[in-house]
Amino acid sequence: MSGQLISNPDVKADVCLLLEGTFPYVRGGVSTWVKQIIEGMPELSFSIIFLGASDADYSEPAYDIPDNVVHIELHYLLETEQRIPPPKQPFWKRRFQGSDKFDRNSDLHTMLSESDGEIDDDVARSFAALLVGDNAITEHELQHSKQSWKTIKQKYEEAPAGLDFNHFFWTIRAMHSPLFTLARIAANAPVAGVYHSVSTGYSGFLGSLLCTQMNTPYIISEHGIYTKERELDLAQVDWIPEELDPFKVGLNDNMNYLRSVWIRFFRSLGRMSYASANQIYTLYNGNRLRQIADGAPENKLTIVPNGVNVDRFRQVRRTPDAPVPPVLALIGRVVPIKDIKNFIRAMRIIRAKVPGAEGWLVGPQDEDPDYTRECKLLVDSLDLGNCVKFLGFQSPDDIFPRVGLSVLTSVSEGQPLVMLEGYAAGIPAVTTDVGSCSELVYGVSEEDQSIGASGAVVPIANPAEFADAAIALLNSEDAWRSASNAAIKRVETYYDEKDMIGRYRRIYRNQLDAEQSLREAS
Amino acid sequence: MRNLIAGIVLACALMLQVLMLVFLAASNGLANAPVLWVLLHFVISLICAAAITQLASNLTPAGRPGLFLFCSGLCFSMPLVGAIGALGALIYGIYHSNNRHEEHVYWQYTNNAELPFTAPIGRALTKLDSRGFVEQLNYSGKTNELYKKVLAAGNIRNALSVGALKAAIGHSDDKIRLTAYQTLDNKVSLLNKEIQKLEQSARGQDAEDQSNTWLQIASNYWELLTLEKDEPIAREQLLKKASAAAISAVRILPTNRNAHFTLGRIALLQGKERIAGVAFERAMALGMPIEKAMPYRAEAAFKARDFSKVAESIRSVDDAFKIYPPLSHLARYWQ
Q: What single DSSP character describes residue A308?
């Protein structure tokens, strides 16, 4: 199933953004970044291909659609497709072609599973050709052909003994089904000067299909590392059948085979996305190293840090002599990865030492209702009902003038925009030591470090240390002012939105020029 | 391709063997020159054997020379019949070996338990668990192996895994840190959900069931305490809740000895020695075995600095239970 918000599929946009589960339906750092990019370049036209899980997950867009977006199409990868009719070809021809295709498919799968890290661009193109070329494997062939059955049986025989064939068979079917949806999307995709995916995974692989099919430049910008996040999800999900072996002891057991097959699948999507892309952009060095380990060619990688609208947040800065409100704002979704419980426990310590201190949780609460309920129960049981407040989504412009510290207790982050927005408003940050948070607080280069600390970094899952760091800043006006000044200077020097948009403008311009010369040459 | 050539060669060699037998039967031609006949038969037998070895190479991939010698012997000693028989037998064998379903027996491939990780001399030891996993988390650079171990730790009992998982939360590798965090978070969420479900089901039950349900709720809080034991605020809050649930269980059914016992253990952790002592005594009065409750009663007395009660409590435990550690050391000390 698919739907459309603004439909002009025949208009050629300058940039086609491939977005999986982000803008314009889901609020978050990546969606804000996408909006910044589109609005920051009004001279360029954009089209959007949005990929989601199923129609029921998305109701109304969470963001206004900028005027320079000429086309948006929505596709849901887990929706049940109508029965695919068999291709109209004589059976002997189908049989002959099928055998050839499935042999090639088998070889490529073997090559992928037996190697690790970077793969050649040709391999990615060969895979893409299996789905979108003239001699592509169709969904009907995967579901009904003898060659497909033979390949699945062969792969099953290579799997560890004792694996349930039923589970294996349906895993393979379920795993490959979204790829055919991607192939259909690619076949009818809007034409663009450059395709730009903001993650690997399905949208990254769609980029591979599109650049193979259209021979158009393709770039990737990654904020979090999709492959890693998927892997972590898959390691814990309970829909993958797990048969615990009671005879095995110790901690050296290998992962469940089907789980590892799923993880390898997403790793392969990532490797093929990286191999097909002309350029890959990342936020900071930690992510860059991870991408290299996951198969991104080093020569394609460039670091482009996030940026925020400093002018906008300058308006909400407090005057130098204004008192510092003892309010800590955690701006983010109420989900386990943000470790909200850690913040609530820290608030109990802070409240005991700083009378009148408040903790605000500013962000959507509907993503994980069970976790939200647990957090609210924790607030009640710690008797913090009048001190810790769940405010839901609020505009940062309204929040920053009323808070003293911007805080993050996350166990995983990339380069959090909320911290930078807080800096632009002159609010120091107390954050856990994850992602590039430490770089944002203490600086990257020597020159950056000489600006001073714009807050404090504490270990994860340690409410006592978190509380101590927050209290130290709230109780000492000099320390707070010094951190606030450092925050403002750092964001103005290194993380201004104008710089980020300028860099992406140059990137798009270079790719569009390359596309133009390619068209003229051909 | 090789097999195709081998097949053709074998067919030709067999025809030659037939021809040789015809000569022998007709007593003409080559039959008059026996040395030459034997020599030719020997060469043809070798060709047959080589072809059969190629066709049946899957059967003994590492022992081709042996197979060749075996087939040569058969082909030479039994002209025609030997070659056909050997080929037939081998094809039958390959067919059956391919279709045989091998069920591995667990004990055949269960690895030996690993020896505990040993810290190099001169390095300060951190808190170790029985398999040295925490030590590995701190000093091993093999992140992929550690990641798999953290995953596996999620499947073992909370009391055994929680220390390692807590240590893994502080690891520098994102994957290890997040897996440990998610594992602990899932365990906490599951227990919280179960508590909510039990609280709902407690309504409308008879006194005994209701008391046992509250006891189960107290036990779940106890389990949560295992997961959050290093966190003082959580510990205090969970002990309070566990205590409230145990008190409910006692209030609803005052004869529930397990509820008194659990209440005693919770009070002991809360530092309420007097309540703990009374709860253990009531549990024993209601039939709780002395050897189970009395050591805790002794601990409560020790914390309350009532040393004569400690000695008296330990003395009252049957000698059969005092000959093994850890009670044996205590019994010897307090004798």
A: B
Q: Which of A91, A101, A87 is nearest to A151 (CA)?
A: A101
Among the partner residues A161, A235, A460, nearest to B179 by beta-carbon distance: A235
Interface test with A, best of B175, B199, B227, B241 (most A CBs within 10 A): B175
Query: A325: which residues sit within 8 A by CB, 6+ positions away?
Result: A402, A403, A404
The whole-number pLDDT of residue B187 equals 87
Query: How many angstroms separate the CA atoms of A258 and A326, rounded?
Result: 50
- Provide the token pair at A375: 């957090």
Q: Computed from CA positions of residues A441, A489, A337, A197, in that sequence, does the dihedral angle turn out positive or negative?
A: negative
| CA–CA distance, A229 with A269 (Å, rounded to integer) | 13
Q: For residue A183, which amino acid is it?
A: A
Residues of A in contact with B240 (CB under 8 A): 381
Give the phi and the psi of residue B317 in degrees, each rounded to 5.
-80, 140
Amino acid present at A33: W
d(CA B120, CA A167): 45
Average pLDDT for runs of 10 along chain A of length 522: 67 94 88 94 96 85 92 86 56 57 80 81 84 80 84 89 87 90 91 95 95 92 90 83 62 74 92 95 94 94 94 90 93 90 93 93 90 90 91 92 95 91 96 94 95 94 92 94 96 95 96 86 78
Inter-chain touch A252–B102, beta carbons under 8 Å: no
pLDDT of residue A82: 53
Q: Which two tokens stand for residue A243?
A: 């048969």
| Rounded Cα distance, A479 and A84, in Å | 66
- H or E element in which residue A51 lies: strand A46-52
Task: Name which residue leads in pLDDT, B66 or A439.
Answer: A439
- % of chain B beyond a pLDDT of 90: 23
The tokens of B242 are what? Answer: 């566990």
Strand order across the beta sheet in which A218-222 lies: A2-4, A69-76, A46-52, A13-20, A192-197, A218-222, A279-282, A301-303
pLDDT at B122 over 70: no
Chain A residues with CB within 8 Å of chain B CB: 161-162, 228, 231-232, 235-236, 244-245, 247-255, 290, 336-337, 339, 345, 348-349, 370-371, 374, 377-378, 381-382, 411-412, 434, 459-461, 463-464
Question: Which residue from B114, B188, B241 is facing A252, i.e. has the nearest CB?
Answer: B114
How large is the average pLDDT for residues B98-113? Answer: 53
Task: Decide: pTM greater than 0.80.
Answer: no
Tell me the torsion sign for CA atoms A432, A433, A434, A436: positive
Query: Which among B107, B185, B189 is the nearest to A247, CB-wise?
Result: B107
Confidence bin at B88 (pLDDT 50/70/90): confident
Main-chain phi, psi angles of A425, to 5 degrees = -90, 5
- Ranking A9-13, A447-451, B138-142, B272-276 by mean pLDDT, the lowest is B138-142
Which pLDDT score, from 0 to 100, does residue B58 have?
67
Between B170 and A268, the more confident residue is A268
CA distance B300 to B279: 10
- Nearest C-alpha of chain A: how many angstroms from B304? 29
Mutation to test the B interface, candidates A251, A376, A411, most B Cβ within 10 Å? A251
Question: What was the pLDDT predicted at A392?
Answer: 93
d(CA A60, CA A512): 32
**CA A478 from centroid of its chain's CA atoms:** 38
Q: Which residues from B are below 8 Å from A when comparing CB atoms?
A: 102-104, 106-107, 110-111, 113-114, 131, 133, 145, 148-149, 151-156, 166, 169-170, 174-175, 177-179, 181-183, 185-186, 188-189, 192-193, 231-234, 237, 240-241
Q: Which two tokens stand for residue B165?
A: 């998982």
